[in-house]
């Protein structure tokens, strides 16, 4: 009798030993394996450059000779630089005026969200500026602003040196940058409008909501994810603006149109001050990080 029980106990223990892992554990393992390549790429191309830039900002280095530890000297010099405050002020101007892109994109999306003949062609025409490279946009608006033969001269009646006047150059470049940014926000909102619950809108109309009241209380709450993406990407685009400034003004005249991203490039490429350029990059990164964390906290609070 005892032998039979012991003989039966052996296969039971073997079955338990060979039992497959729970389904949730296998799913977690599969998810980690799928995320591993992307995580490695993110670590190599994002995390490592960020950490190396922070470390480099404490050194003086020209890119060729050995590094020399400088402590906080790069940051002290940055805080006493007039160009830094000019670039910071221009970044604030970019940020304020660039935030016109989400509401303008929303207005275009509401106008184009119709089922009429030929609306797809109109949408593609509105979206066309976004697919143009920044260099092409800069060259087009450079010709537009030209005081001798530009289209602006024909409109105004006389030549206006927009890119040659420190008072107008920043605003002229921002206007050129808004041309492709507004269609980008428009596409985000058009995508969000396709996911709106039509039954909720019909119920709101039956309750008497229409016009701005319908937009504010019914449509915009359902477009909150699209608004979040439009605002965050617009702010990041405003803070890292570089290509149009490089093509249209080169940071001039007299550094009047420079921003932090172009100031960083200028110090690294022209003057071989890699450590000082890294300090500018760290300041710009911290500004972006603070804003993105603030926006994420607002989104999480509104969702909960």
UniProtKB/TrEMBL annotation:
GO CC terms in record: plasma membrane
Localization per record: Cell membrane
UniProt keyword annotation of GTP-binding present: no
Transmembrane segments: 32-59, 92-112, 124-145, 168-193, 214-238, 276-296
PROSITE patterns: ABC_TM1 (PS50928)
Highest taxon above the source species: Bacteria
Keyword field: Cell membrane, Membrane, Transmembrane, Transmembrane helix, Transport
Transmembrane in keyword set: yes
Any GO BP annotation: transmembrane transport
Family: Belongs to the binding-protein-dependent transport system permease family.
Protein's name in the database: Carbohydrate ABC transporter membrane protein 1, CUT1 family
Organism per entry: Paraburkholderia phenazinium
